[in-house]
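#structure-requests
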Amino acid sequence: MSSVVSKSVDPYLIRRKADFQAFTVNPNDFKSLDGIIGGMDHNQPDYEESPTKRAARTEIIGAYRLLSGNFSIPTDRSLWSLCFSSQEIQQFVNSKLIDPSQYRGINRDRGLVDKLKLQQPTAKFYRGEWRTVVQELNSVPACIYFDSTQEIENRELQEEIACTMRLCPKETLLAVNVIVQNPQRGNHRLLDTKFGRFLANRFDGAYLNTWDLEGSAYEYKTNRTQMKTFLFWRLA
């Protein structure tokens, strides 16, 4: 499947915003990539179920539908997510993107995983570090939502993403959420290009050509922290 996401014009916003009801996200907040973008703490703050977070996940749902041409993830594939709440899973289910049995949730917090198993008994949950668990999953992803709370320049985060990219088959959407401006560490803007250089050093050009890494990305603010979600599409 050829890339359909443009650096200058975001076709999702133009053609799919109404269809997929991408509420509360200002089109002016969407940023094109400036070239290839450039122990983790996975505990999410209380904003997990805010309208902003729900809107951000809605954008991921819409992007998958646009890029894949599928309204729902095929029954023989799954959605992997760094999970934090039952409401997150229910949003994917209510949107008809997945059946609960297609959900694979990962978190290292035993109490959270046990709670989610009770709340969503037909979904599957795994306790452990992201990189360890995903390499052992007996499941083929179509969409991966790596909802981190780490800064984009964090080397461990970059290693996590590189590991996840290797596991993506053809026609998989990898949505990577990162911090690009953290008021607790000053107001300077973190650079996407540092991660771009990491990818260029980690993978050869032939492999990187199997990805659309110059696609759409969007930003949103949670409290005072500026977040950015990159949408990577595995072409072949």
